[in-house]
């Protein structure tokens, strides 16, 4: 079967268009965050003023507040950051954020077009080499984020999701680019569709969870500084984000969804390995790293439930998990020879 | 490894609610380590006490966490250093290239990480820790499954979810309706005077335990597969047959308890091998493999009718409880050697191992029957040969577009008479001399298919008759792979339940409201049903973003069941969060 080069060319043009729109979206998310930061500061000032006025009244409210506390604690990702919502009320309609979301959807459309065109050009799934994997994988990240946006207001995460997506696309185009072509025999299997597509979704969730974890760690540091009486300097937009506890729960939810998917990736990969190579587990470098990632995120889930480990240390474990994910993709494919060596680069 | 547990809280039956502590439920960690002075060893205990202390340490969550992270770190070197279990040839090359480093890596077991004592120690300790934690927890869970939901707290309004409303029905009718509604939502129930206690989500812990026990199952299945399975490889040139017996294999790797003397008696022959490489795409995709297909004639058992099967990558052939894989392919030039007397000293296919992506292949022929001296041919088969001004003869495409066989010849003793095993792909030239041309340079030949060449000194002729192919075939038997799969899927199912099934407690209290309330609110002119004050309260015992929604749904269902789907008149304590992501 031959390759439709015109369609492959269309795919490349769509990638460039998507990158341009992502760039606009990224700028809009950044502007929005800056605005939120200002709003949060105004709000804090406002609150300080009103608190002085209502010291007496607040005593009566205290009981009710303590009763509601666990409820807030269990709502987590659900409340998109009431702080953000309040900031919105205080600061008008967050026009920049709305532009950013519109750009996200437009870019996703172009991105999806590029992925589909690439697949159709060779009449197969568009993840046969590292370029295609990066192209499709980053598209899935945007899709997961955009769909999550329909249900939760996670716009504050936008810059930290779209930024990496844009970066990956740039890397794909500049370093990893490979001509559209047919697959090597080892990849000609429906397991390529099952195993890799689940790996995409799972990696996308881990990526978004990573962004949220980094914000959580930064936020926690700022909170500690504030408690210690040293108001943090710089990064004012962080004030607009939810408190670290809430970010922690958001990360946990994402990882909790992703972990079973990653387990499935592992098992589906083993089934495929049995079909392709006659061994479901052979400690191939890619298998090793997929396993390492699984173990590290398992450690994260355990750390979270271990007394004295709290959110912060567990968060570092999940950061380590994401680093392993990057190693698995960026280093293992290229530098460690093994059965999975069909990166198509170099 | 201890099972991940939910954030267990106090019962909710007394005292104000505490924020959830991240303490594992029923965990040795909390009880054991604390009692022993936060991890310190106990003082003044006998050997039994020490043993118990050590066991507690091993089965604690902290140890499990430590072992998990250690396992992750320990697995990494095996992806960097070449592994004997994957490719012993690469290991041998690595040892030759790194003479200083290799002995140390060897000593540390780094060429065989996943079978090394230290790696085994880590995962075995981890599994002991897991079993030591999960078994007591299973017992505890079985007990919990039989324990009725706890008594209704005195002050329901202190629970995180709480709604209060009035209905026109008597308290017993309300509780009966609540019973139906909650049973329908799969709660376990316990009736108390004037109230109903309900609990659900035991599946969460069941899933957790199933997950961990399934991991043990996977480990056992992997071990059994390794012990009872076997794996063998054979290079089969076109037209040749293979009968499944130990002697027919080029290499055979049986498990410790496998019985290689009675393999299933199937046989097959390789009728043809079709290959296809990329010719259109430019760049690094040019020449990439596109399709390999072997046609086999298979006989399942002696006397059975032969059937024709296509063997492809990703499409193994299952026969006689074993699986047959097309693992590789290459060229087998057909070469005929006549000796000085003009007798055919050798004629046949010579499987040649590919050395690069364009199938430049190493060809070695050992002619034991040549007279007056034994002959050895060493050379390279180039399927699409080009003579590069710098690199010399190279192959530029993997398919056989313009094949050439380049070789030199040695004469003397091949060293095969001593009975020592020799690598068929290497020529031992210790007792041999290289044939030279008249000018004193080593004799070199380059043949196209059909060509012959006279050897110097009247030693005979070499003919490159034609080019055929061989298939690299792997045969594998793993009796426990089905079990490994079942346990893996069970583990994922258990894991999913343990992460997403919410554990909830819910209480419904119905108290007859005073007549004054009924008089004020009651429907004018209608029949007077007694007024009842209903309270519904709920408590999450795990990550549970849907608790408020659940409470709303229960209240709505209860009102519908009582025929009074009114507006909420109970206090709504927060904005209702959505469901889980």
Could you please describe the fold and organization of this structure?
- The complex is a heterodimer of chains A (346) and B (581).
- By secondary structure, chain A is mostly helical.
- Chain A has one domain.
- Chain A contains ten helices and no strands.
- Chain A has helices at residues 5-53, 55-75, 82-90, 95-121, 130-151, 158-176, 190-227, 244-277, 285-305, 310-335.
- Chain B is α+β, with helices and mostly antiparallel strands and 581 residues long.
- Chain B has four domains: 1-147, no CATH class; 153-201 and 502-575, Sirohaem synthase, central domain (Double Stranded RNA Binding Domain); 204-229 and 479-498; 231-477, no CATH class.
- Chain B is built from twelve helices and 24 strands.
- Chain B has helices at residues 28-35, 47-58, 61-75, 77-80, 88-97, 102-107, 117-146, 171-184, 202-228, 481-500, 515-521, 547-561; strands at 161-168, 188-192, 195-200, 230-237, 241-243, 251-254, 267-277, 289-299, 307-312, 317-319, 322-338, 344-349, 353-354, 361-367, 374-382, 385-388, 392-395, 404-412, 432-434, 444-447, 452-454, 461-477, 504-512, 531-540.
- The two termini of chain B are 28 Å apart.
- At the A-B interface, helix 2, helix 8, helix 9 and helix 10 of A face helix 3, helix 4, strand 8, strand 11 and strand 22 of B.
Arithmetic mean pLDDT of chain A? 82
Largest sheet of chain B: 7 strands, antiparallel
Order of helices and strands of chain A: HHHHHHHHHH
How many beta-strand runs of chain B?
Answer: 24
> Could you tell me the strand content of chain A as a percent range?
under 5%
Short description:
The complex is a heterodimer of chains A (346) and B (581). By secondary structure, chain A is mainly α.
What labels describe this entry?
heterodimer, A: 346 residues, mainly alpha, 10 helices, 0% strand, B: 581 residues, alpha+beta, 12 helices, 24 strands, disordered C terminus
